[in-house]
Amino acid sequence: MPQIIALAGKGGTGKTTTAALLLKYLTARKMTPALAVDADANANLNELLDIDVHATLGAIRKELKGDIPPGMTRNQYMEMKLHQALIEEEGFDLMVMGQPDGPGCYCAANQYLAMTMDRLADNYKYIIVDNEAGMEHLSRLNLRRIDYLLIVSDPSARGILTARRIAELTKPLQLEIKHQYLIVNRVPDPIPPALQKKINAAVVEADMELAGSIPASNELVQQELSGASYLQLAEDSQIIQQVFAIFDHIFSSKQP
User: Fold this and answer.
1) Three-state secondary structure string covering 26-42
2) Terminal Cα distance for the chain, rounded
3) Is 253 exposed, middle or buried (0-12, 13-18, 19+ CB in 10 A)?
4) Closest Cα partner for 152 from 243, 235, 238?
5) What would the pLDDT profile of 79-108 be if each residue is shown by its tens digit?
6) Are 63 and 81 in contact (CB under 8 A)?
7) Which H/E stretch holds residue 186?
8) Which of 32, 90, 136, 184 is most deeply buried (CB count within 10 A of its CB)?
């Protein structure tokens, strides 16, 4: 069984940035093969990885509404299209969900994503799911078992409060979370005492563990602006060493 890593948090906190850095970590540590799933309708994980996307699950579903080639069942055709949408890279593959069927409707796209993950899961050691903002959609992806839930917050009181609420939502949604972590992104150096106090209170009240804080980084900003892949960031750079230390804390003592 693969280890499922889901990222959650309110919009704009840096979930996709964290997912790209996590993918760099897994490939650098040879914790592969991995599958990265961009489950946000506003997909942009591929941009941080400098990967072109030619097919999405949303587009496949629309194709399946039409005629099926002669001699193929609908399931056979879907299987073929899913493999065509799977982007194969060194050490990992990427799958993009894409746009929903209509305004506010994600049900069918989520169903196809769940089916895809069921079909592909056994091929991978880790599956990273970069989610849209919030938590409710996780219950629609058949992700009842999540090995690592990484809740990403920005360095604001509202961000920390939202992270705590997201962590608390896992219980009514009946999600089985083995390990639940808070990552605070783009923090100033040093961290203001008032912010640290809110972080400490949130992890206690929501039964999370603080994985660490990712500093505000001009290097990450420049990498994104240049369009270069996060996978090309030097492993001896300060920001990558800081991020890798956070992921070492999460995974090193909890390997299956």
Assistant:
1) HHHCCCCCEEEEECCCC
2) 10
3) exposed
4) 243
5) 788 788 889 999 999 988 876 555 445 555
6) yes
7) strand 176-187
8) 184
Does the pLDDT value for residue 109 go beyond 80?
no
Count of CA atoms in the C-beta half-sphere (13 A) of 30: 0
- Residues 154, 253, 11: CA angle, nearest 5 degrees: 20
Report CA-CA distances (Å) from 61 to 55, 66, 96, 144: 11, 9, 13, 23
- Under 8 Å between Cβ of 214 and 18: yes
Distance between CA 256 and CA 240 in Å, rounded?
A: 25
Q: Could you tell me where the beta strands, DSSP code E, fall in 19-114?
A: 34-38, 87-89, 92-96
C-alpha to C-alpha distance for 202 and 216, rounded to whole angstroms: 21
CA distance 147 to 151: 13
Which sign, positive or negative, has the C-alpha torsion 157, 46, 23, 168? positive
What separation in angstroms does the CA of 146 have from each of 5, 42, 127?
6, 23, 10
Distance CA 197, CA 195 (A): 5
Size of the chain in residues: 256
Per DSSP, the three-state class of 131 is coil
Q: CA-CA distance, 40 to 50, in Å (whole number)?
A: 17
CATH superfamily assigned to domain 3-254: P-loop containing nucleotide triphosphate hydrolases (3.40.50.300)
Q: Which pLDDT does position 141 carry in this prediction?
A: 53
Among 4-13, 42-51, 92-101, 105-114, the minimum mean pLDDT is found in 105-114
Could you tell me the two tokens for 101?
A: 């069927």
